[in-house]
Amino acid sequence: xxxxxxxxxxxxxxxxxxxxxxxxxxxxxxxxxxxxxxxxxxxxxxxxxxxxxxxxxxxxxxxxxxxxxxxxxxxxxxxxxxxxxxxxxxxxxxxxxxxxxxxxxxxxxxxxxxxxxxxxxxxxxxxxxxxxxxxxxxxxxxxxxxxxxxxxxxxxxxxxxxxxxxxxxxxxxxxxxxxxxxxxxxxxxxxxxxxxxxxxxxxxxxxxxxxxxxxxxxxxxxxxxxxxxxxxxxxxxxxxxxxxxxxxxxxxxxxxxxxxxxxxxxxxxxxxxxxxxxxxxxxxxxxxxxxxxxxxxxxxxxxxxxxxxxxxxxxxxxxxxxxxxxxxxxxxxxxxxxxxxxxxxxxxxxxxxxxxxxxxxxxxxxxxxxxxxxxxxxxxxxxxxxxxxxxxxxxxxxxxxxxxxxxxxxxxxxxxxxxxxx
Length: 422
Prior knowledge:
The chain is of the alpha/beta class. It contains 17 helices and 17 strands. The protein folds into 3 domains: 9-97, 3-Layer(aba) Sandwich (Rossmann fold); 104-276, UDP-N-acetylmuramoyl-L-alanine:D-glutamate ligase (3-Layer(aba) Sandwich), CATH 3.40.1190.10; 285-421, Mur ligase, C-terminal domain (Protein-Tyrosine Phosphatase, Chain A, Alpha-Beta Complex). The strands form 3 sheets. Strands 7-8-6-9-10-11 form a 6-stranded parallel sheet. α6 packs parallel to α11 (251-263) and α6 packs across α12 (267-276). The longest helix is centred in the C-terminal third of the chain and has 19 residues, at 403-421. The model has no long low-confidence stretch (mean pLDDT 93).
């Protein structure tokens, strides 16, 4: 690691005791910092997370964010779920405490070459594939960020000769300062996260921060078929290069091919990686088949556009399970793709009424009280040869802590259903 002395004896407070908060706290403790963590959840809800901390010398405030606990610190590191106007952030600003994101903290220590991936959809797949092609080329690579381990959980093991394939969200980019990837990718831009960003411009401005510190020695990889994204080339100091889908490659593959070209990885090696790639968990993941009905876990589809993509890639009739926390998007976008393909829509969660309003009467919409209820109803409506598709178009935070937990719950329910029906 580099800059390790910078944090020695520094008073650092972390907001959020989830994965990235735990990773930050443990790393800062190892660096000799005086570490505090504040989380508004109570001790009972965070007991397991507390047990993952390396030392009892890490101070904790659970169930509140008091001014007394925050003041006196020299730096605040926030988790991705903490908004810019959250109470602890406002308190830090009141006392003149700098606020940075977890990826900015890890970047300060990172000696490796960073390839950062953002966009409204496709980030996890592209980040994973970039890691696989670098690994296939015989280099050591860490795949982290929103996918897998937090950046700060892996940075201690990195060397200058290594690579980082890093998935970054608009939330994480809001609080960067010096973050400067060697290669930055913006895959696409679509209506999303309007539950967090006040409008589309604010969302776009957050995404653009991925290249704000780049210079002529860096690369910015942009989607040439997304006109808004393509136009960002005029705002960058880095070398803009473009990708587009074709008969040979889908958009995700095309983006990875461009990164491979920059890194000097041979095309035939990349093609071998593509051929062997079986996809990522929770993205169009085949679960099993029950009496001729296939179950597909697409829990990672938190965008309407992701569900459109899923529907385009399923050839049979679909019973769609969707819903969760509304993010200010237009669910009606799926209508043209779904016409003649969706047999029934099962809606769950906070967005259920909004989705029904957007899709009825063109589609028959049924409400379910929970995910177990939705799985049972979907199976009862499905016919032999159909697919039951969990593709929520919403975030999971009203019912589950993340899309992974939602996807795992869906798979478990399908396994249980199979025991009953077969």
